[in-house]
């Protein structure tokens, strides 16, 4: 059972900051505590709101966010609230709105991690979800309207924890790996290259790529056909995306959001591909959202095809949307799934077969051979073939060599305006 005992403000501050040392700012103003210090050796600011929203509280949160932005350091926001003073009437929405705009304005500028262990509802839930990452305990109450309990499964929550201690531990691990802001370099760590990558699903391959104890998995409660995680390769932070058999709508939204976060802070994205492509139920709007996230991301993008890559998934994760694409020799890269291709291309060969299933499978195997990664080299979409023994070094080398990547755009883009 999740721990329903809430940590106090002082316990949170002492647990989060190195040596339990922190400096409070703007004390005595507003129903919020704000302080800065060091987390895993890197500067960070936190504010803890556990009360009633009013004008002074709204202003203090915005002041704290401005302080962090000017100092170029990440923010950890701890939210819980009993609402607002209804005597203030419609003005209360202005208080929330001011904070929401400030959080949104600084999105992609300084890392913002929101935490909650209590009641986080209505406008406050929107504010928390507007942060880069939202971490919640299982005992927390999170909804925009009473009765709406889908927030855990719809991708709003990045990590669901048993208690606040676990939330703070994960937060500290993320702050240690993330850059201080969108202009700062990625931190570097000691690294040890694995001898080879495991053969298996995307999770197994990513666990082999990421250095020991560096992996932090996000959005596990939604999009079961995909995996998103932070981890280190060659001592530097990477965003890992694993794509499994079938891509659903939830996978599209989940991966798109994660890639956008990586892009904002210059974190390279390594995609592990072993997929049949989009499912029959995957909506076009979600697929476009995913495609746009990859296409517009200017960060380094490396793709490794470990098994199969069929259909329009090739356009999203391979094609022009990756800086380098590697594949195992036995990978199959094809516009159609083998059995579908047999029905479409070789239906005449199935006529009169004594054992229709066996004949269909034989033709599918022939198609796989024709569409092998080895043969795909001639198409130019594969940078090189790798083996489980060489994959790590090849990917690490590709990340190094593309470090100075530049992607000038030929057109003015409103969202890139300074």
Question: What does this entry look like structurally?
Answer:
This protein is α/β, with parallel strands linked by helices and 418 residues long. The chain has two domains: 9-177, 2-enoyl-CoA Hydratase, Chain A, domain 1 (Alpha-Beta Complex); 202-331 and 372-416, 2-enoyl-CoA Hydratase, Chain A, domain 1 (Alpha-Beta Complex). Helix content is 35%, strand content 24%. The protein has 14 helices and 17 strands. The protein is elongated. The termini are far apart.
Give the radius of gyration.
24 Å
The CATH class of the largest domain is identified as Alpha Beta
Main beta sheet, described? 8 strands, mixed
What is the count of helical runs?
14
Shape: elongated
Quaternary status:
single chain
Named CATH topology of the largest domain: 2-enoyl-CoA Hydratase, Chain A, domain 1
User: What is the average per-residue confidence, as pLDDT, rounded to a whole number?
Assistant: 88
Q: Report the strand count.
A: 17
Q: Output the CATH homologous superfamily of the largest domain.
A: 2-enoyl-CoA Hydratase, Chain A, domain 1
Q: State the distance separating the first and last CA atoms.
A: 48 Å
Search tags:
single chain, 418 residues, alpha/beta, 2-enoyl-CoA Hydratase, Chain A, domain 1, 2 domains, eight-stranded mixed sheet, seven-stranded mixed sheet, 14 helices, 17 strands, 24% strand, elongated
Secondary-structure topology with pairs:
Blueprint: H1 9-16, E1 22-25, E2 32-39, E3 42-53, H2 55-71, E4 75-84, H3 91-105, E5 112-116, E6 119-121, H4 122-129, E7 133-137, E8 141-143, E9 159-161, H5 164-177, H6 202-209, E10 216-218, E11 226-233, E12 236-243, H7 249-264, E13 269-275, H8 284-296, E14 301-310, H9 313-317, E15 324-328, E16 332-334, H10 338-345, H11 347-350, H12 356-370, H13 373-376, E17 384-386, H14 391-401
Parallel strand pairs: 3-4, 4-5, 5-7, 6-8, 7-9, 12-13, 13-14, 14-15, 14-16, 15-17
Antiparallel strand pairs: 1-2, 2-3, 10-11, 11-12
Helix pairs in contact: 2-3, 3-4, 7-8, 10-12
């Amino acid at each position: 059972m999740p721990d329903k005992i809430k940590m106090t403000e002082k316990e949170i501050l002492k647990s989060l900051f190195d040596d339990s040392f922190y400096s409070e700012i703007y004390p005595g103003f507003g129903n919020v505590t704000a302080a800065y210090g060091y987390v895993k050796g890197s500067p960070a600011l936190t504010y803890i709101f556990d009360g009633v929203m009013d004008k002074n509280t709204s202003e203090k949160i915005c002041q704290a966010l401005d302080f962090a932005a000017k100092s170029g350091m990440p923010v950890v926001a701890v939210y819980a609230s009993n609402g607002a003073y209804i005597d203030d009437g419609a003005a209360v929405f202005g208080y929330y709105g001011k904070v929401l705009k400030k959080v949104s304005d600084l999105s992609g500028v300084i890392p913002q991690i929101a935490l909650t262990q209590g009641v986080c509802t209505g406008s406050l839930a929107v504010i928390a979800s507007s942060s880069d990452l939202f971490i919640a305990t299982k005992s927390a109450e999170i909804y925009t309207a009473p009765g709406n309990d889908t927030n855990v499964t719809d991708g709003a929550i990045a990590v669901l924890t048993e208690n606040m201690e676990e939330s703070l531990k994960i937060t500290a691990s993320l702050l240690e790996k993330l850059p201080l802001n969108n202009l700062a370099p990625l931190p570097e760590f000691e690294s040890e290259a694995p001898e080879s990558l495991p053969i298996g699903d995307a999770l197994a391959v990513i666990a082999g790529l990421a250095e020991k104890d560096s992996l932090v998995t996000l959005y596990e409660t939604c999009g079961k056909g995909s995996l998103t995680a932070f981890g280190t390769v060659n001592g530097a932070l990477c965003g890992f995306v694993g794509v499994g058999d079938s891509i659903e709508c939830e996978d599209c939204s989940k991966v798109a959001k994660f890639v956008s976060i990586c892009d904002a802070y210059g974190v390279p994205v390594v995609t592990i591909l072993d997929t049949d492509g989009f499912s029959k139920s995957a909506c076009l709007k979600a697929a476009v959202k995913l495609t746009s996230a990859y296409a517009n991301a200017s960060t380094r993008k490396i793709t490794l095809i470990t098994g199969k890559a069929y259909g329009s998934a090739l356009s999203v994760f391979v094609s022009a949307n990756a800086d380098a694409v590697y594949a195992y020799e036995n990978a199959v890269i094809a516009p159609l799934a083998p059995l579908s291709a047999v029905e479409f291309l070789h239906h005449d060969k199935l006529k009169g077969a004594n054992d229709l299933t066996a004949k269909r499978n034989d033709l599918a195997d022939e198609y796989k051979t024709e569409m092998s990664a080895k043969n795909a080299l001639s198409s130019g979409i594969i940078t090189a073939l790798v083996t489980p023994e060489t994959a790590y070094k090849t990917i690490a080398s590709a990340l190094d060599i593309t470090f100075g990547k530049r992607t000038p755009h030929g057109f003015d883009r409103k969202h890139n305006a300074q």
